[in-house]
Specification:
The chain has helices at 3-24, 28-48, 54-82, 145-152, 280-290, and strands spanning 89-94, 97-104, 110-118, 125-128, 138-140, 156-159, 163-164, 167-170, 173-175, 182-184, 188-190, 193-195, 204-207, 213-216, 225-228, 231-235, 238-239, 250-255, 261-267, 294-297, 306-309, 315-317, 322-323, 326-327, 336-340. It is an alpha+beta fold. β18 (250-255) and β19 form a beta hairpin. The chain starts with a helix and ends in a 10-residue tail after the last strand.
């Protein structure tokens, strides 16, 4: 076989499976581009070393090692942004846990992911990331939401409160590092274990031991299971305290009037034209129409992530997070809100 055709065939055999994996699991694009690809490139160079001249080998090496990874990542990112948008759907993931996806077009495109949780359903328990260290302030080790789901055997989860310190210098250099303890703004609790920095102006989502939820500011400790937000933007069925922040990715949590239905919401953002994101007024109207009576805003932007437990306990992302400008990369965050629930007879991700 002609060496050129061998190269083309090799590229095809690598590119097609890589594309399939990347479409089904966006985070794999980094592994393909910067993990597997160099070994494939070395193999191609080794196979053709005796047939190519030195100049041709240098040019091909430059293309394989530097240009191809960039092209692969760019192609995948373009597919996520400009590829087909998902269909609206409503499906039961676990007993008492329904997943709702809304695809909005006006005034800007937005893909909204909602977990509707019946807190009275058998086996349902809300679980917040527990503290890792004795220090009540800098008490948690950052984790991605997928790591949280895997580590604690959670059935579904979203990212939680704002945390510090945080800094993004460039797409490849950012804080938090996974080993650095973080402070959770507004405080949190996991089965009576209190941590973080309480603030009188931070609204707190609290689920008591009986499974009843409340949102209040301030809420006196001790808390059973709780995490804090930054804005109480729906209060007793009315839109309130809506800020003028730009449209983008958002995370929110809400309760109905009884306190026994919990809404966990993640909105994809910064991915035009797939999803620009949403502002608080529009999100508030959407939640009110779904029956929310109180709702708070949690950490958004690159932190916004929703994950469900799939087959064999493998976490499956239900949304498309953006970390450091890369679509499909999760950010390690300070804490999370998760849900334990019993499986359905046939349970599958949407």
């Amino acid at each position: 076989m002609n060496p050129l055709w061998k190269t083309v065939l090799t590229l095809g055999l690598v590119a097609l499976p890589s594309l399939i994996v990347a479409v089904t699991w966006p985070c794999m694009m980094t592994l393909v581009a910067f993990g597997i690809w160099p070994f494939v490139a070395i193999w191609i160079m080794h196979r053709q070393a005796k047939r190519w001249s030195r100049i041709r080998s240098m040019l091909c090496g430059l293309f394989l090692f530097f240009i191809c990874p960039f092209l692969i990542v760019s192609a995948f990112q373009a597919f996520y942004r400009y590829g087909p948008r998902p269909e609206p759907t409503t499906t039961s993931l676990f007993h008492g846990v329904d997943y709702i996806r809304k695809v909005l077009d006006e005034p800007t495109p937005a893909v909204v992911h909602i977990l509707k949780i019946n807190l009275q359903a058998d086996g349902v328990e809300v679980f917040v990331t527990p503290p890792d260290f004795a220090d009540g302030v800098f008490a948690v080790r950052p984790r991605t939401t997928s790591q949280f789901v895997s580590e604690f055997g959670i059935q579904a989860a979203i990212n939680g409160s704002h945390f510090s310190p945080f800094e993004r210098r460039n797409p490849l250099s950012y804080i938090p590092y996974k080993s650095d303890p973080k402070d959770v703004l507004g405080g949190a609790a996991s089965r009576w274990a209190q941590y973080g920095t309480p603030k009188h102006w931070c609204p707190v989502l609290h689920i008591d031991k009986s499974g009843h939820g409340t949102i209040a500011r301030p809420l006196e400790r001790p808390w059973y299971t709780a995490t804090a937000g930054t804005r109480h933007f729906i209060i007793d069925g009315e839109i309130n305290s809506v800020d003028s922040s730009p449209i983008g990715a958002l995370t929110a949590a809400g309760l109905d009037a009884t306190g026994f239905t919990l809404f966990l919401v993640v909105v994809d953002g910064d991915q035009a034209p797939y999803s620009n994101g949403i502002d608080q007024t529009r999100l508030a109207s959407l939640l009110l129409n779904m029956g929310a009576y109180n709702a708070i805003r949690l950490d958004g932007g690159g932190s916004s992530t929703m994950v469900s437990q799939g087959a064999f306990g493998i976490p499956i992302r239900l949304n498309r997070p953006v970390q450091g400008g890369f679509i499909g990369i999760e950010r390690p965050v300070g804490n999370h809100i998760g849900v334990y629930a019993k499986p359905l007879a046939v349970s599958r991700p949407p």
